[in-house]
């Protein structure tokens, strides 16, 4: 959400050092693709961003990882091309059902209480005077669009959910606990990582260790 592939640079380095091939695509309008930001970017745009990386790089038997809003994206990708995906991992991420959106899941109304300009949502931690790399405004339609899931093969992909919980906090108070519970009800393993919502920045070594354990098991 509001970030780009750059935020996973440390994760990339750590995984590559152990012999993994890593792709960290940036979604349209975010990160180094911020110059493409517009009010016309939809959830499907972002799903196709990742689908096309997989198709044009001719990737198979891959481990697909989605973090935060990225859970919406990887769910759509898994529904589109499940045959390409060996394992699916959600990290403190949305786990939507058919017909849901970020807005419908969170119950947040799209109204004047949100800072929206030219179809882009500005989080309160985003400041124009910051130099790159940085988080940027996020296309609003990607939060509003309902996801459409039609392929039951998606549910056959071995999937793991990682819930990040800050030290001393109750997991049940975490914003993404409800999604971890959804995963649990589907019979998927749910792991807990002591970290804030952005473990790729705050706990990269611990996150990579957990990812490698999931991949090798």
TrEMBL record:
Residues 6-208 form the AB hydrolase-1 domain. InterPro entries: AB_hydrolase_1, AB_hydrolase_fold, Sec-Metab_Biosynth_Hydrolase. This is Esterase. It comes from Algibacter mikhailovii.
């Amino acid at each position: 959400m509001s970030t780009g592939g750059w935020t996973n640079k440390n994760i990339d380095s750590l995984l590559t050092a152990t012999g993994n091939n890593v792709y960290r695509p940036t979604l349209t309008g975010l990160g180094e693709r911020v110059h493409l930001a517009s009010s016309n970017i939809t959830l499907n745009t972002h799903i196709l961003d990742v689908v096309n990386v997989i198709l044009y790089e001719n990737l198979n038997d891959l481990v697909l990882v989605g973090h935060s809003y990225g859970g919406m994206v990887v769910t759509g990708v898994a529904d589109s091309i499940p045959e390409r995906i060996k394992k699916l991992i959600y990290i403190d991420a949305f786990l939507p059902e058919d017909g849901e959106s970020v807005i419908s899941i969170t119950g947040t109304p799209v109204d004047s209480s949100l800072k929206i300009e030219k179809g882009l949502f500005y989080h309160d931690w985003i400041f124009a005077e910051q130099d790159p790399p940085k988080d940027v405004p996020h296309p609003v339609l990607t939060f509003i669009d309902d996801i459409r899931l039609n392929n039951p093969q998606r549910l056959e992909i071995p999937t793991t959910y990682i819930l990040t919980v800050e030290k001393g906090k109750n997991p049940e108070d975490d914003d993404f606990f409800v999604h971890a519970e959804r995963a649990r009800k589907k019979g998927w393993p749910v792991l807990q990582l002591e970290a804030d919502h952005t473990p790729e920045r705050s706990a990269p070594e611990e996150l990579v260790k957990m990812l490698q354990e999931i991949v090798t098991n």
